[in-house]
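Notes on consecutive records. When two proteins share a document, each keeps its own sequence and its own token line. Never mix them. Below: protein one.
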Amino acid sequence: MTTKIVQTHPDLGTREFELIDDAIEYRISSPFGDEELSVVLSVLSPEPVVDGPMMYFLSEVNREALIKLFVDLPDAEEFAEFVRTMKRRIREEDFGNLSADNRKTAITREQIDTTIHMLETNINPTSIDVLLSTLRDLSDAPTNQERLNQVIEAFNDLGMQQGPVLTYAPFFTTLLSTTDLDDLG
């Protein structure tokens, strides 16, 4: 498992990335100056984007490129191992994902039906069809834990559509992580 990588580019300088606890720390030294930053893994999308000679790990919040790597440096094998490790660690840090364990009260059919109505009224239903389908299944059996898990999986797979869903369906906020802010320090 590779948790540190140093990349040297002949024109753009050196980039050093290291996975430490729940963050990635990087240092960039280039002709344009030096930069150091730490990024919490839970804010990153686990699926990077390749654009020519660069690979980007994007923010789940605003889709901004937060981690910028040179593809295949220092060599293809070490680079691929580091990227695999990073993707795995990002998935492990699922702070932003919903969890059925976070729901502390019973779910009623009325809550689910209201949620479906709010989503269909305010969001293009075709953009969230899988989520709506899983919600309908849950409405038929509100106490079924497996169906609730399917709703959560559908929500977690929405990507950028999660924001509008949270806006129009307060039901989902009851499934968000209950991490205390003091635990993040």
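Protein two starts on the next line and is unrelated to protein one.
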Amino acid sequence: MKKILAIALFSLTFGVKAQTIESGSHSTTGYVKSDGTIENSSHSTKGYIKSDGTIENSSHSTIGYIKSNGTIENSSHSTIGYVKSDGTVENSSHSTVGYVKDNGTVENSSHSTIGHASGVKKEWAAVVFFFFKF
């Protein structure tokens, strides 16, 4: 899934810092706030990533989980992917679907840049770009 959300780099919204999510051409597509709120480019809330790793949609229904070991699960706790410590993103079959680089560049499996998420946790960026449609 290539749904891209943007994060406004060091902007403040309701006192919470946010990071910009950008497309491969650097246009803003959404925001991820430091509290885990995910917004589209119009600042409408699309979802939440809670401190315990729970991923919720805008209605606060649980749609998945990020485990401390980088495993990404759906709401039924079935594994849908993995984010390795080096930023490699894999699907449930361990096939590489993309990469989240240390500098925030997000690449598909062919190493083509599909977006940018500077300052966003690798797991959060992987969830936004590859696993869940917000």
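For the record: Confidence is low (pLDDT under 50) at residues 1-15.
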